[in-house]
Amino acid sequence: MALASAGARLHFGFCNLSLSHERLYGALGLALAEPRVTVEATPADSTSVTVESDALSGAEGSGADAVRGDARDAVRAGVHDEIRADVGEYAATAVDLLDVPGATVAVRASLPRHAGLGSGTQLAATTLAVIARAHGRDPEVRERAPALGRGGRSGVGVAAFEAGGFVLDAGHPTARFTTDRPADGEWAVPPVAARHDVPDDWRFLLVRPDAEPGRNGESEDASMRAAVERAEPGLADRIAGIVTRRVLPAVAAGRAEAFGAAVASVGRLNGAWYADEQGGVYRPPVGDVVASLSASPAVFGAGQSSWGPAVYGVTDADRADAAREAGERALEAAGVDGSVAVVRAANEGARVRAGAGDVDDPDDVAGDPDDRDDPDGLDCDPDEGQH
């Protein structure tokens, strides 16, 4: 038997979406300690998947808390079936990639689905890693993630799974961009260009308004293609300056206020690329939540994680309670229900262990910072050669 657990991730945006520059994408984000996905696996002659009832409480996503009675039961049943189907596909692919007979897989906990917190990549990678550990195999998550349909644009999720921390990935050569989605496995996960441990006293406010799920699957692919094909190249030049002169120095120096302001700026500029796809710089009702949080002295910077509806705020341990209160006021001001939490970053990768026990006391983690790819560096603005 084996057990694996991985935390959510925040996605602050991309360095470039314009086809006018030599490198495309280049994502920024970081790993969170909570919430988490946890999967158990036992070697078997065939593959089966169960989803424990406790796993559904964290996976229902935005809008579920506003539903009651039979409708709530229907939501839970739908989420159960979605998770079971997804894990079934990931497990079948993992068994094939690892060349093992099968596995009995149980999902103990799951992340909020399609909320902007990386549920798909973390669930896929955790499933692969736990089946590999159950059979005594190396999961090779980075190499095998494309076969699971993950890591095609952003490398933040895979890098967060491997080693945690703040991550800036190197993106892809723009020449490889295609209007049609490549088949699973026909890409490589972008290498890590920069990684830093997140200071222990930093905290991250998570506000999840009850709203429609974020873009995913085919709708996300279509929206990304549309955004790329009309992206203004000048925005990439501005983001390059923010990343190299503000984001990276702030995280390296442990300056939470400067970091929060910088990643919020990256998010606003990314929102200009997505405005036609999501109804504004932020998708509704995220804009109202971000505006309210931005007015709080306890929140150093706020923005939308990925396609939302999750909203992040950067704060620190001394201001955590005040930030939580600001999150609750932001939901009230926006006129929506939702959830509020303050969490730490994770500076280690996913927890994976063999045998019975507590996954919070692992015998190893998924990756080590010293084992990461060592690329030439991220060219956020290839024309200027910035790294």
UniProtKB/TrEMBL annotation:
Residue stretches of biased makeup (Acidic residues): 358-387
Span of domain GHMP kinase C-terminal: 249-329
InterPro entries membership: GHMP_kinase_C_dom, GHMP_kinase_N_dom, RFAP_synthase, Ribosomal_Su5_D2-typ_SF, Ribsml_uS5_D2-typ_fold_subgr
Chain intervals for the UniProt region annotation (Disordered): 351-387
One Pfam family matching this protein: GHMP_kinases_C
Residue ranges occupied by any GHMP kinase N-terminal domain in the UniProt entry: 96-165
UniProt cross-references to Gene3D superfamilies, sorted A to Z: 3.30.230.10
Record keywords: Transferase
Keyword check for Chaperone: no
Any one GO molecular-function label of the UniProt entry: transferase activity
Protein name from the UniProt record: Beta-ribofuranosylaminobenzene 5'-phosphate synthase family protein
